[in-house]
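Standup notes, protein team

Yesterday: finished cleaning the Hyphomicrobium denitrificans set.
Today: DUF937 domain-containing protein structure.
Blockers: none.

Input for DUF937 domain-containing protein:
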Amino acid sequence: MTIAATLDSADGQRLIEQVAQTFGVDDDKAGQAVHTLTDELQARVQRRMLNRAGVADVAALVTNPAAGTALSEPQTLASPEAVDSGNHILDVLIGSKHVSRKIAARTASSSNLDTGTVEKLLPAVASLLVAELQRQSQPALQKAVSGIPGLSGFGGSPLGLPGDAPPQSGSASDWSSGNGQSPSGRPSGAPIDAGQPLPIPGDNIPGLGRRSGRSYPQPDDNDDPYQRLPDIIRRGGQQVPGGGGSLEDIIRSIFGKVLGSNRGVIGTMIQLFLIRWLASLARRFLSRIFTGR
């Protein structure tokens, strides 16, 4: 099921009603705003994933264990903590407050809400989008990384949920040679050391990757390897066992299916730029016909 289909379901309608209640707006207007903002943000996710660094950025958002709070506790979407979390998502996906305000203004016009209210809804919808992307992609994501040493396990969840126990460094694995050591001398079952993030020039320029602003200590036996998954993707070259292809392409495909757009990089570029550009031209043309301007 895609995110768009989820919004149209009974559960999606109940969620929209909760959003309307939380922000004190009419249910119908809230529904229109949520659908429009979701479409806008889905396009931004697809655009971010056109390159490897963008796939890593989206993976960092989706594999954050706290991301699911937006779905499990939607009544808290207006809290300061939820707003900060949503604004961080917008920073990753959009990177410009000016563009965010333009999206809010367009949505306000189409949903008959004031711009200030839609600006409050925007980080909430961003959090809901990432939470739903996490929920739907989790099984496929776990399957994709299950065969990669150091990225499997954790109670069957790729998200490192509270209560999951990390694998023991002395456990058996395909690396084991009978002495608990890998060919490189690393204890079998120990997480992959992806090292420090690459020092990418223009760190906050969309399309070139970004830093999270936090430090990256050297991993130990109790470290959650999924915290380093985005950096592993960003470095590239990791292949999924069994002929599955590159980790970057597999994860892009997983997210693309949930977003309802799994056309690959070239197909996504055509959809995002050519089709949306033609649609914009059509809207301007029709506007001139009806307004006489």
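Follow-up from PR in the comments: Confidence is low (pLDDT under 50) at residues 153-209, 211-222, 264-275.
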